[in-house]
Each structure stands twice: as structure tokens, then as C-alpha cells.
Amino acid sequence: MDKTNITIIGAGICGLATSFILSQKYKDIFVVEQRDSFGRETSSRNSEVIHAGIYYPKNSLKANLCIKGKTLLYDLCKKHNIPHQQLGKILVACDNAEEKTIEGIQRNAAENGVNNLRFLKKGELDTLEPDIKAQKALLCPDTGIVDSHKLMHFFSEKSKNNNVEFAYSIKVINITKKDSEYEITVKEPSGELFSFKTNIIINAGGFYADEIASMAGIDIEKNKYKIHYSKGQYFRISHPKKFKINHLIYPPPSTTDLGIHITPDLAGGLRLGPDAAFVDTIDYAINEQDKEKFATSVSRFLKDLSIDDLVPDTCGIRAKLQAPTENFRDFVVTHEKDKGLEGFINLLGIESPGLTSCLAIAEMIKDLLQPFDNH
Ligand SMILES: Cc1cc2nc3c(=O)[nH]c(=O)nc-3n(C[C@H](O)[C@H](O)[C@H](O)COP(=O)(O)OP(=O)(O)OC[C@H]3O[C@@H](n4cnc5c(N)ncnc54)[C@H](O)[C@@H]3O)c2cc1C
Fold it and tell me: Which of 20, 32, 43, 86 to mutate to test ligand 1, by most ligand atoms within 8 A of the CB atom?
């Protein structure tokens, strides 16, 4: 292959959703992935929650893409029988300060146009969730769970049916702009290098997206594009039938993460997590010593939880633009034409709610590419 029209770097949920949407309109799409299959990084290491869009600042991309994305995702899952369940979520407050926080979340949700949150009446929490204790509880009906692997498989199969080509175990190592096109150099598993040309690049490289942007000549520090890694571990309840949990149960969020929550999964399991800690390297090992922290944190709202109920589960790494000392940073989904990179679309900082937003992100990319339609 000497040349392709569109190259998508990364076969996580964002790259796959983008290839699914774009392949309904464009021909000649190539997806390059360094791992041996799709979804080997963050997209298979998350809570699999379809978020409602209640936390993020009004008019941010995180709010808008999450709210649009959840509807697109529920519709797609229903239409194509992708396993999912709209369980709803309950935010619990265990003291006065937390009560104020969840009241603020209800106001923020309303500002974002999510108006269906309501505080549970006295006794209602006991009926809905007999194993949960809280001073006050806020119900968010839109939240759900999805089988992210089946979703990625669906995107991959549909894309292949639309003639998208996938190349696995191939790492992009260099990008050079040549007139109105790009030359991409990749490294094959044998170590051999291979180059091809492309008109359009979509950088969906997850926590390596800053490196890929830098290959194209973008100054990462100047543009505040550096990706920071925040590790999130999960513990699983070894015998989930001990508890009857019907909703997702969340504490109030912190400024960096959503708090260690209880997520029922589609297989009937119960996961606790993720926690959050900034790290320098990608390492998926779980620190068993953190079991106590998880048990203490979740015992505040889950009755009769003992440390012995927990076993280590998985771990994921958030790709955050927000540095440890910074406040909120939004997703970056942008066409880098102002940097002289016509046809280069960057996705950066696609942490949560990236899974929920994947179809809305893909639709946004389709809109960004519209000016190229007459090329
Ligand atoms: C702990 C945790 C919990 C989360 N929970 C939720 C949730 O419940 N709901 C929700 O909506 N979101 C959640 N998220 C966020 C969500 O998982 C991410 O937003 C989403 O998976 C990001 O997908 P992606 O395709 O951008 O990145 P990734 O899945 O990381 O995919 C990027 C791909 O690019 C490839 N790549 C990188 N560099 C190169 C290169 N040079 N050459 C070739 N390939 C390359 C990588 O190998 C990788 O496969 C969570 C995230 C974490 C970490």
C-alpha cells in the first residue's frame, strides 16, 4: 500500500467508533494499532459505565459529547443487541459536606440539560438499595453499563464490512508533512520500517496521543498537550451474592476522579473502584495493600463490607491533560489546521467519559472533515 485517504492511529474505542462512522461516508480508511488486537489499553480497562453528563462544566466538550454520546450509544446498543443495561445510579452523601456536593451536582446536571435527577424520599433508599446506607441520596436514571468488548467488536466488524483495513502489531513512529499529504512511517513486528502516504490523520492514540502529535511537529509543552497518567485500580467482591445492589452506587466526586464506586457488571459481578493516583509509567500491577483503603472507603455506604470480601481485579490508566496541580481540563478534539497541519485531527485527554462519548466524538470528527469532501 502506497497511499490511503484516511489513517486512524489507535484501535481503542475512539479509533474504532471513528472508523465505524467515517466508513459509512468515506472510502479507503486504514486503522493502525501497535497492539495485537483492538482495545488492549484503556478501552478494555474501565468501569464500562454509560455516564449521564452531570459532572462536567456547562458547554464543555466533556458535557456536550457525553450527553449526545449516551443517547447515540443507548440507541446503537438497542438497535444492534449490544449487551447493556440502564440501571440508573445513586449518588450517596454520608455527611453534611457531601450533601452539599451532591446538591451542587444536581444543579450542575440541570445546567447541562439533565433535568431528571431527584433526591430519594425518606425510606426510599432502603427499598431500592437495602444494603446501602446514606444521609441523603440522589438518583440519576440515565446512567447504565455496557459490554465494551462487544461494542468494540461491533465497531470493528462493521468497519471491516465497509472495507476499512486494520493493521495490528504496527507502531507509528514518524509523521512527516509533505505538501498536502502526510508520510507515516511504521515499525513492523520484525523491526522493519515501512512508509505510506495519507491525506488525513486521526490521532486516537490514547495515552500516547501527545507523542503522536509531537511526531507531526506539534510543540506539546507550548500547546499544553502533555498527557498525564492517572492509575485507577479495581477490587472485585469475591462472592457478590452477599450483597443485593441494583444501581451503580457513587460517592461524591473529587476534583480529579469520580470516587471509588460500586459497579454491578453484566455478568452479575460487583466491582469497586477505580481509585486514582498520578503515575509516571504505564504499569497495570495492582497493589494488594490498597485493599484496606477500598474497604474503608466503600464501607462508609455499603453495609457489612469486610476487607476479606475483596480480591484484586483490573486496573486502567487515565490519559489526562489535567496535571496533578491543575483543575478541570476538557477533551481536545480538534483539526490542527491553524498549526499548519491541514487534515490532522487530534484527540487528546480522552479520559472518562470517553467511552460514553465515543460515537459523539466520531460524529464531531466527521463534521471536522467536511471541508475535505471536495478535495
Ligand atoms: C480506570 C478508568 C475507568 C474509566 N471508566 C469509564 C467509564 O465508566 N465510562 C466512560 O465513559 N469512560 C471511562 N473511562 C474512560 C475511557 O475508558 C476512555 O476515555 C477510552 O477508553 C479512551 O479510548 P481511546 O480509544 O481514546 O484510547 P485507548 O483505548 O487507550 O486506545 C488508544 C490506542 O492507540 C494505540 N496506540 C498508541 N500509540 C500508538 C502508535 N504509536 N502506533 C499505533 N498504535 C498506537 C494504543 O495501543 C491503544 O490501543 C475510564 C478510564 C479509566 C482509565
Answer: 43
CB within 8 Å of 224: residues ≥ 6 apart: 321
Atom of ligand 1 nearest to the CA of 274: 1
What pLDDT score was predicted for residue 254? 81
Q: Which atom of ligand 1 is nearest to the CA of 48?
A: 8
Specify the pLDDT at position 255: 76
**Which superfamily does CATH assign the domain made up of 89-141+228-320 to?**
D-Amino Acid Oxidase, subunit A, domain 2 (3.30.9.10)
3-state secondary structure of 320: strand
Q: Which CATH superfamily is domain 3-45+149-225+328-374 in?
A: FAD/NAD(P)-binding domain (3.50.50.60)
Residues with Cβ within 8 Å of 123's Cβ and at least 6 positions away in sequence, in order, are none
- Of 46, 85, 331, the one to substitute when testing ligand 1's pocket (max ligand atoms within 8 A of C-beta) is 46
How far, in Å, is the centroid of ligand 1 from the Cα of 244? 31
| Residue-level pLDDT at 46 | 96
Evaluate the CA torsion angle 38, 84, 67, 301 in order and state its sign: negative
What are 371's three cell numbers? Answer: 471541508
Domain spans in the chain, listed from the N-terminal domain onward: 3-45+149-225+328-374, 89-141+228-320
Q: Enumerate residues lining ligand 1, CB below 6 A.
A: 9-15, 32-35, 40-43, 45-49, 51, 171-172, 204-208, 212, 232, 274, 316-318, 347, 350-356
pLDDT of residue 80: 98
Question: How many Å lie between the centroid of ligand 1 and the Cα of residue 17?
Answer: 12
pLDDT means per 10 residues, the chain with 375 residues, are 94 98 97 98 97 97 98 98 98 96 97 98 96 97 98 98 98 95 96 97 98 98 97 96 96 85 94 96 96 96 97 97 95 97 98 98 97 73
pLDDT given at position 372:
80
Ligand 1 probe mutation, 7, 38, 42, most atoms within 8 A of CB: 42
- Whole-prediction pTM: 0.98
- The DSSP symbol for 302 reads B
* Cα–Cα distances in angstroms (integers) from residue 142 to residues 49, 61, 88, 139, 363, in the given order: 11, 19, 6, 9, 21
